[in-house]
């Protein structure tokens, strides 16, 4: 984190850059910045349309104060505009405004023990049925929204569309008997775009659940600009949806309940996942294992195709199981890598004491960092965007569900 957050504004007059104002953020001059004759904003070297017209269809108030938790610091209040600038500068944080106090929620769950992979026949029978056709068709549509920003109209529309496709896939793939075990719900958030949760109930009475997660929202550095979010995190969204579809087709009846979570507002500071995790902790739900899929599509040209296993801010024992699953069921090896503080939604589960892990498309340095959070995060930007690579992650999600939840076989 830089000691000060700067915003560079270029008043645009008659097509000519007339002047350059370097505005230091302080509560006192924010009003001046926002009401001034500034039509453009430069964030991390990119220029964006910041005119009021470009901000229609959004319910984001740039002046609103939010409570932000960065690594190793006391929480600080900053405006939405300052949040945008901090994120553009690579700062990672939780927006804890709605979950400021976790007193009484933070869990000491003890150390769960995990089995070594043993359901080889069941897992391989399901992963054989995974396809790239479904994810491709879903992602073409899902990444065609102008943005899936959590405070935008199209963000809300895209979430409702995803919900309808999950319901449709469930209706097509599940037998009536299996359908009776499934619930599909929206976890409502005050900003309008909701988290979606599909749950397959289990027959076990040990009370512990298994969660597979991805985030359904997207953003540009300047949130009012186009954000197709094909890789971040449209890829993870359709990756776990394809695993869900294949498990239903296989008539998967788990021992422990298995939940698929599509979080809203990851890009706003892990807002959706914090709300869900805090709610589960408050209700004393026992989460046995949570696995996050955020960016699963990119294979950097000239770099060996690998699965990135995140090793920081994760549960080490569950990470070992994840590696075992990759060795046992995937066609490509893993590479250990790090992602930093508050990197994706698994961190919200860790914060309230649940065991969670994160798997990503490659080592962090070889990920699709040049395109995410830009208008170029598209399926067709490069042949490095690979549906075959995503399929490996669907295999991992299937293996995780079956091995950790167990399969009640008739
Ligand atoms: Zn993401």
From TrEMBL:
Keyword set includes Zinc: yes
InterPro entries: M28_fam, Peptidase_M28
Pfam families with a match to the protein in the record: Peptidase_M28 (PF04389)
Chain ranges of the Peptidase M28 domain: 196-391
Enzyme Commission number(s) from the entry: 3.4.-.-
Record's keyword terms, sorted: Aminopeptidase, Hydrolase, Metal-binding, Protease, Signal, Zinc
Cofactor(s) the record lists: Zn(2+)
Top-rank lineage group of the source organism: Eukaryota
Signal sequence bounds: 1-18
A Gene Ontology BP annotation from the UniProt entry: proteolysis
Keyword Metal-binding among record annotations: yes
GO molecular function, one term: aminopeptidase activity
Protein family membership: Belongs to the peptidase M28 family. M28E subfamily.
Name by which UniProt lists this protein: Peptide hydrolase
Species: Scleroderma citrinum Foug A
Organism classification: Eukaryota, Fungi, Dikarya, Basidiomycota, Agaricomycotina
